[in-house]
Every structure is written in C-alpha cells, then in structure tokens.
User: What shape does this take?
Amino acid sequence: MADYLRQMPHQGSADLARRPSAARRFHIDIPLLVLLLALTVYGLFVLYSGSGKDMGAVVRQGRYFLLGYFVMFAVAQVSLGRIMRWAPWLYLVGLAMLVAVMLFGVGAKGAQRWLSIGGFRFQPSEIMKLMLPLTVACYLADRALPPRFLPILACLGLIGVPAVLILQQPDLGTALLIAASGLFVLFMAGMGWQYILGAVVLAGASAWPAWMFVLKDYQKQRILTMLDPESDKLGAGWNIIQSKTAIGSGGWEGKGWTNGTQSYLDFLPESHTDFIIAVLSEEFGLRGVLVLMGLYVLILLRGFLIGIRAESSFGRMMAGSLTLTFFVYIFVNMGMVAGLLPVVGVPLPLVSAGGTSVVTLMAGFGILMAISTEKSTGPR
Amino acid sequence: MPPKHIQLKDSHREARINNARTAVAILMVVGLLAVILTRYYTLQVTEYEEYRTQSDRNRVQLQPLPPKRGLIYDRNGVLLADNRPSYMLSIVREQVPDLEATIAELSELLPITEGDLDNFQKKLSRRRPYEAVPLRFRLTQEERALLAVNRYRLPGVVVDAQLLRYYPHGELFSHAIGYVGRINEQEVLDLDESDYRGTFHVGKVGVEKYYEDILHGDVGYQNVETNAHGRVLRVLERFDPKPGADLVLNLDIRIQQAAYDALGERRGAVVAIDPHTGGVLALVSRPGFDTNLFVNGISSKDYSALRDSLDVPLFNRAIQGQYPPGSTIKPFMSMAGLVSGLVTPLTTVPDPGWYALPGDSRKYRDWILRIRGTGHAPRVDMKMAIAESCDVYFYDLARRLTIDGMYEQLRPFGLGERTGIDTTNERRGVLPSTRWKRDAMGQAWYPGETISAGIGQGYMLTSPMQLAVATSVLASKGVRHTPRLLHAVDGETVAAPLLDPVVVPEEYWQAVYEGMIEVVHGKRGTAKVLAKGIQYLMAGKTGTAQVIGIAQNSVYNEADVAERHRHHGLFIAFAPAEAPTIAVAIIVENGGGSSAATPIARKVIDTWLFGEAADG
Assistant: This one.
C-alpha cells in the first residue's frame, strides 16, 4: 500500500480525471494487439503455403490462435498482485511435474518430455517458460534492487533446478531458453555488471567441459553440422543445406506465394513448423523477411516500452524478461534456419504451426497487457 | 507481508536502473537482429544466383528416355523378337536413409539374388545423382503388390515399367538371332555412354549384336520436375527418343521349324540359302536354348547347366562348328579338276577299290571296298564318281591337282575363309595348303595328306554355313553373295553384297549337276532314298566325316562315348536342279553316316517349294 501511495503523485492527473477507455477497462494494449493480429494474419498466410496449401492446417492453427487470444485476454484481466501470489505455487507444481516426467514421462525421439494425463499429452516445461521468470521476478519484487549477491544466488537456485531437470530429459534448447528467461529478470533487475561479466567468463570456460561431458552426441552433431553442413549432405546437413537454398533462392522478390519449389517439392523439412521462415523467405523474398522483421521489432519495442512505463518493479522486470525471451525465440529460430546457429527445436514465434507455443506466448502477452494497464486499475 | 530487509526499496533508482537496462537490451536486440538480417541479405541478395541454381538443380532432373528397341521379323512377318512391358525395382540412393536396411527389408518381401546385388552395386558406383539404379527385374504381380503396400516405409524405392526383349519362339531361333542381355562392365566401357543412358540391355550374340546400332535407336531426354522423393511431378521439356529400326530377316519360320523338327533330338546344324539373293532361309543349330533366360541375367544354375552340358547347346554349330566336309567336297573337287583342265566329264579312272601313290606301297582305300570287296566299276567317270561317291577318282584327281592347286580352285567357293554372314562368332574353317601347314604347324606337306584332302578329310575343316554358301555358288552357277540374315530395315530391302563370281563354261556346271542329280535320282546314288515320291529334281552330295576323337572324361558313360565316336553325317543339296531356289547344308553329329542328314534336306526343300514337307 505504501508503494501505491508513493506512486500516486507521478501519475498524470488527467488520466485519473478521464473515464478509463474500454481498452483500459478490459486491460487491452491496443498497439500490441494490432501488431499481434497483423503477425497472426501474416503467419497464417505463410502457414497455408508452408503446409502445402492445407486449409485444414490453417484452420487448426487459427483455432490455436483463438485459444491463444482468449488466454491472453484472460491473463490480462488477472491483477499483477494475484499473478504474484499464484506464480510461486504454479512454479512448484511445474517442478513437481518435471520430476514426474523424469519418473514416468512419455518419450519421443529418444527424449522424455511429455506427461500423459488421461490420454492428454502435456509438456510441463511449457509451464515453466512463464512460471520461472514470474517466480524470480516475484522473489525480487519485494527486495531492494539491484539485487545483492545472496538474492542473486537464490534466483540462480530458482532458475537452476528446473533447468537441470529439463536438461535431463534431455532438451538442451528448452533448458537454455528457460534459464535465459530467468536470467533476463535478473538482468532487468539491475544485477551488477561484475556478475554478468563473471557469468560470461564462466560460461566460456565451461564450454570445453560441457562439450566433453554434458552434450549428447546428437547435440554435438548438430553443432558440427551447423559449422559445416556439406560434411553430411544427405544426413543431418540436408536440412540446413535445403533451408539455406530455400532462403537464398527467394532473392529479393521471392518466388511468389505458394510457388516455393523447395517446400512444395518436399526438399525443405519441417516446412510448416520450425523451418517456416525458409518458406516465407523463399516465397516472399527478402522483402517479406523485412516485413516480418518489422512486425517483430515493433512488438519488441512495444514490450520494452510497456516495461519502461510500468509502475512496479515487478512489472518492469517481467516486461523486460518476456520481451527478451520473445526476442530470443526469433533470433534462435531465424538464426538456425539460416545456418547461423545449431538446429534446436525452437519455433518461429506466432508463425510456426503448433498450439502449445502459441498459447504460452499469448499468455506471456497477456501478462504484458496486464502490466501495461496495471496503473489505472490494480492496487499495484 | 512485512518487509524483512534492512535495505529500503527506492522506486526512482529502480526505475532508472531498469531504464538503463532496457536501453542496453534494445541495443543488444537491434545488434543481433542486424546480424540476422545481414545473414538473410547475404543469402538472398549476395549469393542469390548460387542458391537459385541450386534450387533448380534440386527439382529439375535430366532423365534419359531410352529408345524402343527395333523388332525382328521373319520374311513372312512373323515376330521373332518382341518387346514386352516388364516391371523392375530400382533404388534412388540419394533418397534412401540406410541402404543396407532397405535392401534387407526388400529381400524379406521378394527374392533378391547375389547376382542381383552384385549388378546393383556395380551400377550404383557409376550412377548419376538421383538416378534410379535397377535392383530386380521382372517383378511378378504379387511382388508389385507387396511393394505397393510397403511403399510408405521404403523411401527411394521405385517400381518402373520398361520394355524388355521377349523371344516368342525361344529355342527355335536361339542360334539364328541370338539374344540381348544386361550391359556388363566391359560393355559399359565400349558403348557410347550417352546413347545408352537409361538402356539396360544390349545385343550380346547373333543378329541382336550384329545389328545393335540399328536396333538400338537414339536416346531421348526430358527435363522433369521431381520432388525430394524423386517422384516426377511434371515434364518441363522433352526430346523424344528415336526408336530402333525393325528388322525383317530372310529367315523363314516354316523352313526353320522344318529343319529344327527334322534334326530332332540329334546334335547338328542346318543352313539353307536362297542362291539368287544370298539370303539365309534357315539357320538351325541343335541343341538350342531358351534365349529368354539370358535377357535379365541367367541364373548361375541355369547357366552352368548350359555351359557344362556335353551337348554344348551354347555352341552355334552352324557357323562355329568345324567339321571335315568329307565327300561333300567332291562336286567342288570335280569343278576344280575341270577348271584346271586335268579332267573332262568323260575322263575315266580305273577303280580297283583302292589307290596308291606312284612308288608308294601304302593303299588308300575306297569306302566301298569294305562293303563290296571291289571298286565301284572298272573305270569311273565324273558322273559316277559323284553319284556313288567314288574315293579313288578323287584320290587320283587330288594327287594331280596338288594341295596348292586344290587351295586355288576351292577358295572361290568361299571355303577356308569367313563367309561374312551378318552375325557374330563365325569361324573360318581350314582350307589347307603347303603354306598353311608351314605357318600353322611349322611342318612340310606330305603327299599322302593331299590324298585324304581329296575326299574332304584330314586338315580340311568347314562350317555348315561355308558348305551352304559353296553349295549356293554351285546352284547359282557361280554367283557368290555374302550370306545375309537381314532382308530389310524398316521396310527397305538390303541386298546381300556380291563377291567375285566363279566364272566357268556352262558344260562344267552341267557335268557337276549331272553327278549331283544322280546322287539323288540315280539307281546307285548315295542318297537315292530321297527320290521316293519326289516331284522335282534335287541335286545333292552326301558326306561322312570321321570323328577323330573326343576328350576322354571319366564322367561320361561308355554308351555316350561310343555314340560320340560315330561318324558325322553330312549332306549338301540344291533344288530344283534346273532352276535352283534353295541350297542347303546339313550336318548331323555322330549320325553314323550321311543317311542321318539326307532326309532333313528333303523336308527342308519340300517345305520351301510346297509350303510343307511332302511326306509329313
């Protein structure tokens, strides 16, 4: 309450005097919503082509989006206070499920990532994508910032436990992404540069032992393949060679919508999921890539702006972390398809087919919207 | 929740720090996105051409379109070599994740032999990228169904239809037209690679090999768009292949069949030639074999059965067989005597039943001495010498001609050299001379050897084809062709090449003809059995060739060996004598004597003249 009172003078009195707009009342950030809708439509067009003109796939993805938008609106209605109260408990539930996966999870392609409950398959690491940063932010919110050594250590514990559990599945990509989302909270909280620098040095130093003892053979193979796809043209290198060919052959103008030979003739693997950016690049050319990139940049900037405008430190940390995590998805996916990064299972956010990632991302944008509209409604 | 920290929260400071961090984050994001964008720019603008080409190369494949092989017909238009659709299983290596596993799975579905695998491996190493390499030919309906059902788990496995050679008459024409077979390693090196893209078979033997260029045609090409699984989606551009030309042969299936049936289960050969054209009407060598076995690679079991058979069915007796002509040489010897002026038709020679060289005590016996204890007659003239196959007459003629004189006079009939027939593996035989013996054996010629040469024994060797050509020269009174199996290509007649004719006075021909007619129609002719019920004049000459000995092998049973030591029976003939339209040469191995060969000539000639054998 004390915080709330202290913040009052900073708010524009005009804001208070005016009747809150409908958007504000329903906790909707109009610019973000518009950008997301634009991205959704663009993505569905690409998906139609990437799935081989499968209207069914588009309809299915459209339903996921409906669910996603519903989740986003629903989450946006929850006050940050309530989110802060619930997040640690959900985090614990997530941890429990990760342990359950380890004990009796369902496998696919040599990894145990799924929990099957009553025939419904469920990936607990997905919950963690939101609950981990929320919990870290929660923990830091009441504390004086920037965080000192001990709180940082505590946060690293919060981050490390689920990350290690996910690494055991093994799912290196998700483990790193989840860890990053937590670290971004710390970063936005203002964790001292000396710690960041130290971490970077430590990460560099641990590369060699990681290569020797932690990474599985198939993971090493992915890295080697990325460095030299020609070494295994028909095997692991195939995907990279074909996706680079798809991107490059699109040129500036692209081959035209639904005219991509690489995807239509099945040279491009996973053309509607992880590699969909190659379809976009091939058919819409660099122009299309720039449009996508523009939408992404605007969404990212809007996210950062929401963070800057946020009233609470919790809101600021969360907005920053969510935005940076969103960026990491974009960077890793576009980088791996273009052969800059090793191939890890990261979808292109809001474009790749798949329901889970859409719902998780939209829930994240729901939190962002909750943050952007917190000041005029909630106690915090 | 009461605050438990000593440090107080400072909202302003926190906001300031957060703003600074946001600024750093934005810089980071912009920087990294710039890296990504640079990468896309490089791929899509700087290296665009390269990737564009690569993507076209991915989808556009140049496919060879193998030409349809020309068909082969007999002179009546009866199909002798056909193309039939056959299904084969091929593998596109680039699309198979694990070749060994795929082959293992395939061999559970259908039989794949070691030979199939060997062939496949060899072709695999020479393929072009994305080329389908054949693994199994002649898939049955069931095998195709099995493959179709399992297709989803066998990526890179394709089933294609292709036209495959089929010989509807199997054994009957095996030695006449030969066969095609799968291209082997050596042939890959010899053949024009571009012309044989997509073709898996090539003529191996016989007409199929000799006329390979004509039969093959020219390969075509098409550019097709394929997907990553090698499936052709559409044709972008097409250059049609030029099909191989159809061949019409001079062979007449009726005569071929008559000769084949008449030989029966005996080993031997029959060659029939049209003396006017040099066209080969029949070319039979028995035993034959089913040429269809060879088309897609004969199994080693079948092959060793053919290879190891004592009857050597793969051996083309008609053109590769080397037999002493025996007494069938006598009409030609007579002509040699007349041409060299050593005898006239009226010249007679005393015949006590044996002959001795002046100053030599060794007696050269006439075959009749053993039977009659005396000669054919006190004095024998040319007509009788031919009709009764008098040895003494020709012993004497040979001595006077000398071996080199014989060589000079017999060569114009085509003896001792390849006839040049349009098929493969012909052998030249031996027409001995002093020079030949010196070159071949490094020995001097002995006068006694001339005597046996006079009755076609000794070193002299001929193939049935050579005998038929020589007989044809007699029948046409000196016109000599290179014998030809081919009659027409794509409807255009191809004439047999003419060689230097044998030019002699008409009465010489008449003299020899008289003797040869007497062989069949005379009371004491050696082939007089043929005259029974005959409605035309046949001129012929019988012959018997001694078997000098065959390889002794403990595997063969004694009855077999005894049978294989019997004399070969020979017969040459032409008819009708007044205007011959057919000349034949026949050999029946171990027939015991010419009587095994003579009836065959009657059946063959009857069929030619009347369309069927007169006495069934």
About this structure: The radius of gyration of chain B is 37 Å.
